[in-house]
């Protein structure tokens, strides 16, 4: 069983080869075992690495981290690495690792890589599981933040320090965290661990994703592009399966499982990914100059007392346009998901995570 994860990954992608303590190939496109524990019962941990993250900095920082990773975890763990080659690949790696009874899957990169790994914990609307495993034993989630943005880590007060992240894994302390779910009219549900958002902020995020090469400056570029041609819209909202209520002139809606998005903006300041709720923040009738005047309040999380800002705690929320235009953007954890209508709800204590 010790070698099954690496073997299955290699079989699934014929172009990938497994190596033992060999230098990484120039294109970083390989799966390999990087350390073995001292016994066959050692924990099996799969590191999912986005080598192109942060303009290639993630791959470079990962190479620098490997000696420390081996020395800190190698005695007690069988450690595998797998490099992503494109969109959605992290989801496939995660699902295969869980099915092959990995004890943990660790996302190495930014919020985008973490988002894909979290989605890999689910398939066809249900959690992925290893059929031969004891139901009381599950695969844990880990994070080593090495990407452009690490907003989810900020909720826990974690620094953008990979050595500190390795220590969290080495300690082995875990907590159950909630996961948000997004349903549309058709297709599979989508999962998010951080923040989902609607309208202006989602549009800005859509454009920001095109300028990741500029680091956190991409969020400013995205905001400028998002404001171009923006108009506030009347939206219908249903909370916890209740009655529909019209919210006029909505600028943006943010639905937080955690607190931060957009490179450090504390948009849902009361969100806690362990309390079984989503925090919903609705901005209405904001003009471009409102964001300039109130930007500091959005970043420090004091905007809930600002005029035209509404906050609520929910287990589910449905959002539709009053007059359907099919043009209201929806995103989660920085990934564009299409347009309204959508339903959002919480899965309490869905994943165990190193803390």
From TrEMBL:
GO cellular component terms attached to this protein's record: membrane
Organism expressing this protein natively: Stephania japonica
Keyword annotations: ATP-binding, Kinase, Nucleotide-binding, Transferase
Span of domain DAGKc: 40-186
The keyword ATP-binding belongs to this UniProt entry's keyword annotation: yes
Protein name as annotated: DAGKc domain-containing protein
GO-annotated biological processes: phospholipid biosynthetic process; sphingolipid metabolic process
Gene3D superfamilies recorded: 2.60.200.40, Probable inorganic polyphosphate/atp-NAD kinase, domain 1 (3.40.50.10330)
Pfam families: DAGK_cat (PF00781), YegS_C (PF19279)
Coiled coil feature spans: none
Keyword Cytoplasm (UniProt): no
MF (Gene Ontology): ATP binding; kinase activity
């Amino acid at each position: 069983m010790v070698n099954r994860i690496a073997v299955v990954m290699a079989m699934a992608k014929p172009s990938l080869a497994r190596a033992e303590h060999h230098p990484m190939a120039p294109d970083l496109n390989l799966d390999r075992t990087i350390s073995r524990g001292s016994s066959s019962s050692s924990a099996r941990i799969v590191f999912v690495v986005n080598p192109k993250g942060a303009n290639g900095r993630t791959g470079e920082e990962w190479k620098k981290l490997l000696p420390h990773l081996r020395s800190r975890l190698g005695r007690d763990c069988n450690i595998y690495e797998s490099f992503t080659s494109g969109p959605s690949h992290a989801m496939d790696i995660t699902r295969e690792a869980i099915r092959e009874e990995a004890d943990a899957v660790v996302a190495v990169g930014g919020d985008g890589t973490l988002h894909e790994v979290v989605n890999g914990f689910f398939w066809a609307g249900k959690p992925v599981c290893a059929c031969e495993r004891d139901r009381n034993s599950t695969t844990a989630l880990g994070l080593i933040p090495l990407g452009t943005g690490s907003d989810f880590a900020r909720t826990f007060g974690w620094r953008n320090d990979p050595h500190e992240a390795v220590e969290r894994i080495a300690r082995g302390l875990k907590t159950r965290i909630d996961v948000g779910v997004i349903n549309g009219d058709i297709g599979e549900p989508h999962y998010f661990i951080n923040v989902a958002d609607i309208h202006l902020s989602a549009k800005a995020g859509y454009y920001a994703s095109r300028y990741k090469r500029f680091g956190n400056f991409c969020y400013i570029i995205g905001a400028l592009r998002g404001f171009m041609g923006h108009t506030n819209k009347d939206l219908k909202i249903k909370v916890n399966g209740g009655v529909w209520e019209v919210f006029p002139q909505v600028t943006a809606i943010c639905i937080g499982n955690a607190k931060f998005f957009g490179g450090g903006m504390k948009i849902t300041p009361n969100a806690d990914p362990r309390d079984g709720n989503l925090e919903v923040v609705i901005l209405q009738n904001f003009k471009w100059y409102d964001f300039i005047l109130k930007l500091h309040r959005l970043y420090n999380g004091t905007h809930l007392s600002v005029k035209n800002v509404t906050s609520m705690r929910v287990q589910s929320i449905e959002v539709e346009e009053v007059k359907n235009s099919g043009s209201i953007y929806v995103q989660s954890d920085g990934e564009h998901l299409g347009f309204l209508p959508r339903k959002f709800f919480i899965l309490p204590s869905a994943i165990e995570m190193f803390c």
